[in-house]
Amino acid sequence: MKIELFKSALCPRCAYTAHILKNLQEELDDIEIQSFDILTDMNSFKEAGIRMIPTIRIVDAKKSWVLPSKNEIRDFILEKR
Q: What class, spelled out in words, does domain 2-80 have in CATH?
């Protein structure tokens, strides 16, 4: 399962979300994480219609949080699995 993380290298919430995803990747061994950084890849954000970071996209479903919990991210992934 491919999970896209839209983030910024300067965003502590994004770093926290990336950390949670990395931990979940160890737990759910069938996920692949692809990251897009707004500082270096603005076109990907525009094409995906991303308005807030961090945002996780699985296929066409997007979810943004101010400060997500591990359970919220896990639930979103399992719902889209």
A: alpha beta
